[in-house]
């Protein structure tokens, strides 16, 4: 067989370079097109099957029927409900005991009498839903987050670093992440302008949730027999993010997850849901669906809380399931340390008989690891365990 030369085939060095450049540009455009794609657009496109990158491996799929909003948990078998701030002073010890039990057994609890106006809870859900449902896609994309920077502020669908995404199934979720505290991070011009009160509502909600988080850290400290300020002192100034998540209806909910199994990175998360069920907490080797409670706030302990309490209180492993009929919305407010803060078990909770269970970690390093490896349950915090 006679092989044609490169010149005869038209493949000069210049031609090869042009071809390589064209391929690079084509692949770059494909990546950009995919990065701009949002789950809501897929859902509203009347697709019959979900794209392969959203299909969970069999062991991660929810083992339930198409109607994933049907909840088969009794009230006795669900996250505790605690009146946190409406108690008389002489009941404080009782409330701390209830909080301690919930933190140890669940890593989560609902709170009532939290001090946040009911109207504000409805407003934050309302403006979030309006952004996703009523704002044109071209206007939403003006607030798109940086796809190459993990946890960047803005409108997006993917939160991991690019190197983690090749081995991680994508969540069936769109979101808008707001950097709200400290005030030096707060830039309302980067938040949606639609509806007209969006920015005002988010700022007000941020301030109210900070107060709730501070009070809760005090009660959690007392529940461990620590000084009221102990955990807050260990955390330092709150770095707060508010993430409004929108989970569109899914044509194949039995194959997907709205949010894969994980525990939160920071200290404490305060979450509200709409009326559509979907949040699940892993307890006693099974997934339990959390009943939506429209005017309570769900408290979720995160990984740094587990480290500070030396494992006495566990961060809650949780996920979100999807359904085929109704979109769902939630608002999660994360309270984290600064990335320069070093977190370790509280000195008061360690002794010769109860040595530290976790290595000290700089929070920024922990965040970097989480976004690089992906959540995968609780494997990030388990990597800090000291082998005694």
Describe this protein with a few key phrases.
single chain; 388 residues; alpha+beta; eight-stranded mixed sheet; 11 helices; 14 strands; 18% strand; disordered N terminus; oxidoreductase activity
Describe this structure in words.
With 388 residues, this protein is an alpha+beta fold. Helices cover 31% and strands 18% of the residues. The chain is built from eleven helices and 14 strands. An eight-stranded mixed β-sheet has the order 1-2-10-7-12-5-4-3. Strands 6-11-8-9 form a four-stranded antiparallel β-sheet, with no helix packed on it. The chain has a two-stranded antiparallel sheet with strand order 13-14. β1, α3 and β2 form a beta-alpha-beta unit. α3 packs across α7 and α4 crosses α7 (198-223). The longest helix has 26 residues, at 198-223. It is globular. The model is unreliable at 1-11, 22-35 and 66-73 (pLDDT under 50).
At a glance:
It is built from eleven helices and 14 strands. It is an alpha+beta fold and 388 residues long. Helix 3 crosses helix 7 and helix 4 crosses helix 7 (198-223).
Kindly state the mean pLDDT as a whole number? 87
Helix content: 25-40%
Distinct helical segment count:
11
Number of strands: 14
The profile of the biggest β sheet is: 8 strands, mixed
Give the overall shape.
Answer: globular
